[in-house]
Amino acid sequence: MRSVRARAALGATVVVALALAAAGLAVLLVLRANLTDQAGLQAEVAAREVAGQLALGVPYDRLETGDEEDHPVQVTDEDGRVVAVSQDLEAISGTGTDRVTRAPAPTPSPTASPTASPTAEDGDDDDDDDGTDSPDPARGEVSTDDPDFANGTATVDGDRADYRFASVEATNAAGLTLTVHAGAPLAAEQRAVGSVRGAMLTGLPVVLLVVAGVTWLVTRRALRPVEGIRREMAAITASEDLSRRVPEPGSHDEVARLARTTNETLTALEASVERQRRFVADASHELRSPIASLRTQLEVGAAHPELLDVTGAVADTVRLQALAADLLLLARLDAGERPGTALLELGALVREEVSQRTGDRIPVTVSVPEEAGGLEVTGSRTQLARVVGNLLDNAERHAGRAVAVAVRAEGGGVVVEVTDDGDGVPEAERERIFERFVRLDDARTRDEGGAGLGLALARDVAVRHGGRLTVTGAGERGARFTLWLPDAR
Question: Is 0.70 topped by the overall pTM?
Answer without folding.
Answer: no
